[in-house]
Amino acid sequence: MATQHSRSAARFMMAPAVILLLGWMLVPLTMTLWFSFRNYFPLRPDRVPGWAGFSNFERFISSSAFWPSVQTTLVIVGGVLVITIVLGVALALLLDQPMWGQGIVRILVIAPFFVMPTVSALVWKNMFMDPTNGLLAHLWRFFGAEPLAWLSEAPTVSIVMIVSWQWLPFATLILLTAVQSLDGEQLEASEMDGASPLSRFYHIILPHLSRAITIVVLIQTIFLLSIFAEIYVTTGGAFGTRTLTYLIFQRVLESQNVGLGSAGGVYAIILANIVAIFLMRIVGKNLDR
């Protein structure tokens, strides 16, 4: 049983890490809030910085591109979540089956998660989605169809595919861990009672995976709301793929005003917190069951 002395010692040893973490989080947040109320032009010495009040917030939200960028962000996040969860569950069940070279297969499935977003976007853009020499173009011609210019004709779908390929290994790994913790005797008993594989999946396996699925949804959503590199490398924000993060980047480049970009960053933080609170309620309900 921990004594008061041991608890005090533990707090003392953890204090440097906690202080460093708080500083790592609070300093950028405080600077973002400060600059959002100011006009600051570090690359334009002809413009004098000064207090802007709420004008940066009004200017950013009144832009005709603001709400479409929020909608695009949510569409991409939702599409990636659906694909990674559905395919993640399928891959987790498949990888849990005994097979030859099971360890190698698992490593190959998880490998895309360690590829840099910029590199994976370039690979998809040049090797898979190129309308002339891409693998998908050759596949289309093989079946007698006209190759599709993915990044211009189906840009949002293309971004969803690229990002899903990156995050599918993460979802698979979490869900595979949950599948391996499933009680095998319960499945054997249901099989002996005559339950079909589909019934066993919906009534036993899927409820068991609910907690893992909610964790995957929560973690992925937090990171997907700030998606940037894949869009910058592939479409450059064109063809309706401009997310809120990319809109902030463009507004800062256009105006050279750090204050305007900081105001957009505050809106992005608000959106992320709204989504996170909503997802945390879902996670809490599942964990309380």
Please describe what this structure looks like:
The protein has helices spanning 4-36, 55-61, 66-95, 102-110, 117-128, 135-142, 150-153, 155-180, 184-192, 197-224, 229-234, 244-255, 258-288; strands spanning 38-39, 50-51. It has a single domain (54-288), classed as MetI-like fold. It has a two-stranded antiparallel ribbon. It is globular, with a radius of gyration of 24 Å. The protein has 289 residues and is an all-alpha fold. The two termini are 29 Å apart. It is found in: Cell membrane. One of its GO terms (biological process) is transmembrane transport.
> Which topology does CATH recognise?
MetI-like fold
List low-pLDDT spans: none
How many E strands? 2
β-sheet strand percentage = under 5%
Protein name: Sugar ABC transporter permease
Transmembrane segments: 12-37, 74-95, 107-124, 157-179, 212-239, 259-283
GO cellular component, one term: plasma membrane
Pfam families: BPD_transp_1
Fold blueprint:
Layout: H1 4-36, E1 38-39, E2 50-51, H2 55-61, H3 66-95, H4 102-110, H5 117-128, H6 135-142, H7 150-153, H8 155-180, H9 184-192, H10 197-224, H11 229-234, H12 244-255, H13 258-288
Antiparallel strand pairs: 1-2
Helix pairs in contact: 1-13, 2-13, 3-8, 3-10, 3-12, 8-10, 10-13, 12-13
